[in-house]
Design a protein that fits this description.
Layout lengths: L1 E3 L6 H13 L10 E4 L9 H4 L5 E7 L14 E6 L2 H7 L27 E6 L7 H10 L2 E2 L6 H9 L1 E6 L2 H9 L4 E5 L6 H11 L6 E2 L15 H24 L7 H23 L5
Parallel strand pairs: 1-2, 2-3, 3-4, 5-6, 5-7, 7-8, 8-9
Helix pairs in contact: 4-8
Length: 286
């Protein structure tokens, strides 16, 4: 059974091999005749094309989004659970399949109870927008900076050491919620897909209310040849971002699902995982 996910240098995507190797050891290999489709926004018209050699596509906690349409569901799709109710509605399947994002199962492997809080606030940008300018802004404010391109272990530790996570990276917020760290959704770029956020937020019983900050562009690596105008512009943008962050931390209430909701969802997801393991052991994917 082959793990299907976006192979980007991004925390949410990289969670796939890290998490599933631990939760279902011995299951994942390079046999493309069956695909395991889990963490990420993976259900769209590109899925059947990218898994064209699969006679079965196991859907476990992923969601609908991106692409130009949806796949035609047939007997090749075995859906155990979906990211949220919007995914179920889009696919025209029972909302009983709408549990939550598969990344919630991080609770089986990692907790934050033994981690001392280091930062009152930390910011985790979208991986395509991460870079030095955001790091400089966070440092100047005394915030933590969490780069979604870091190792899984480092990101998990940094989230756990944070009292409130400001997150443009959705899986930063998902993991924060799972580990009981309050979070504030941030948007700096209009290309951020709000549908996937709304889908997941509905699954955990909270409202999606993003705060907006202007985008910071990556500074040039050749600082020695930057013009004074460019340097001044970067500095002014950083000051504006700092002011926007300060305003958010003073006026926006952080979000966190209830303990009862996240515990119930974790239990349901584990039941689905056991169902999958039983099916696998009985050889239905052989």
């Amino acid at each position: 059974m082959k793990l299907f996910y976006y192979r980007e240098n991004n925390f949410g995507d990289k969670l796939n091999p890290w998490l599933w190797e631990k939760l279902i050891p011995g299951v994942i290999d390079n046999d493309a005749t069956t695909s395991f489709v889990a963490i990420g926004t993976l259900i769209n018209d590109g899925l059947p094309i990218k898994t064209k050699n699969s006679r079965v596509r196991v859907i476990f906690g992923t969601g609908v989004g991106y692409g130009k349409g949806l796949p035609q569901l047939d007997e090749s799709y075995k859906i155990y659970c979906l990211r949220g109710p919007l995914s179920a509605q889009a696919l025209g399947v029972s909302e009983k399949l709408a549990l939550t994002d598969g990344a919630v199962l991080i609770r089986n492997l990692f907790d934050n109870y033994n981690h001392k809080k280091v930062y009152k606030f930390a910011y985790m940008p979208h991986y395509e927008l991460a870079g030095e300018n955001w790091s400089l802004v966070c440092e100047s404010l005394g915030f933590g900076y969490i780069d979604p391109r870091w190792s899984i272990e480092k990101v998990l530790s940094c989230i756990s050491e944070t009292e409130v996570l400001l997150a443009e990276a959705m899986h930063g917020a998902i993991i924060a919620d799972a580990l009981r760290v309050p979070w504030v959704p941030i948007i700096t770029n209009p290309t951020i897909l709000q549908f996937k956020w709304q889908d997941w937020c509905q699954s955990v019983g909270v409202k999606y209310k993003p705060s907006y900050i202007k985008r910071l562009h990556h500074p040039s690596k050749k600082r020695d040849i930057l013009s004074p105008v460019r340097l001044a512009r970067d500095w002014l943008r950083q000051q504006e971002s700092k002011s926007q962050f300060i305003q958010i931390t003073k006026t926006v209430k952080a979000t966190l699902s209830t303990d009862a909701r996240i515990e119930s969802l974790t239990q349901e997801m584990n039941e689905k995982l056991e169902e999958f393991k039983k099916d696998f052991a009985q050889g239905i994917y052989s």
